[in-house]
């Protein structure tokens, strides 16, 4: 690092409590972006319902954030319905739905080699889950006349990669289109729906992959204008904004948090 532009900014955490009294459901809350977001939303005053298939991590997230754990497989309609019902029954409202759980398995690769099983599994976890979560959250939000839905897509929903994960990319394109449509359909009922499109995030998985193969990291980093991957806390900060009343005119967007990747042609050396 040669200057301050590539460092992740130091943060002492939020200075405001924009979500006091609000209830937020976070799927995939046990790890990565979901965990960082559960922490951030709780620190801004929200009651957080932490959903995950991983019971140990999900419970730990709920304990740390003072929220509630809901064991949920987001591909299961009944479990998803039970998740949002839990939020409503325990806290009285469903104000924020951060539909974030997703997978990126190694057998989802080039279209030339990706089998139907891998294709379908990724579609189920990444796209069908978002359909189910929105379907379950919307009736509560319509009744309240208020709500913010944030669906995790990805920057690969808006640009192509030669290092393909074909089902993942297609699933995120689906999340983006579905979010836009819902944002338009329910706009006059006080409900906003946005697709969050993060760039690559500095997760343990990514670190392990790139530690083993630095060339693989470099191939990607050269496309990032800021010269580094995102921290999960930086993505969580964007979710908190979209969840809060600071974003009341932000709706049906592809909300890129990608360090400028999607806007770049030639990046600084
Ligand atoms: N990490 C990145 O670089 C990056 C970039 C863009 C978008 N995303 C997206 O962000 C989201 C979160 O990614 P992450 O990097 O934090 O991943 P992660 O693997 O760290 O966390 C995902 C969590 O989802 C849970 N999960 C998986 N399948 C589930 C299921 N069927 N039901 C309930 N929970 C389930 C896992 O147990 C895990 O706790 C995903 O949708 C991912 O596609 C990630």
Radius of gyration: 18 Å
| Poorly predicted parts | 1-5
Structure annotation, total helices: 8
Helical amount: 40-55%
Strand-pairing-aware structural class: alpha/beta
Bound small molecules, which ones? nicotinamide-adenine-dinucleotide
- Neighbour order of strands in the largest sheet: 3-2-1-4-5-6-7
Shape: globular
Q: What distance lies between the first and last C-alpha atoms, to the nearest angstrom?
A: 12 Å
Number of strands: 7
Characterize the biggest β-sheet: 7 strands, parallel
Give the strand content.
5-15%
- Give the ordered list of helices and strands: EHEHEHEHEHEHHHE
- Assembly annotation: single chain
Arithmetic mean of pLDDT:
94
Protein described:
The protein is of the alpha/beta class. The chain contains 8 helices and 7 strands, in the order βαβαβαβαβαβαααβ. It has helices spanning 32-43, 55-65, 77-91, 116-144, 166-185, 204-212, 214-221, 232-243, and strands spanning 23-27, 47-52, 68-71, 96-99, 147-152, 191-198, 254-257. It has a 7-stranded parallel β-sheet with strand order 3-2-1-4-5-6-7, sandwiched between helices. β4, α4 (116-144) and β5 (147-152) form a beta-alpha-beta unit. α6 (204-212) packs across α7. The longest helix has 29 residues, at 116-144. The termini are close together. Mean pLDDT is 94; it is low at 1-5.
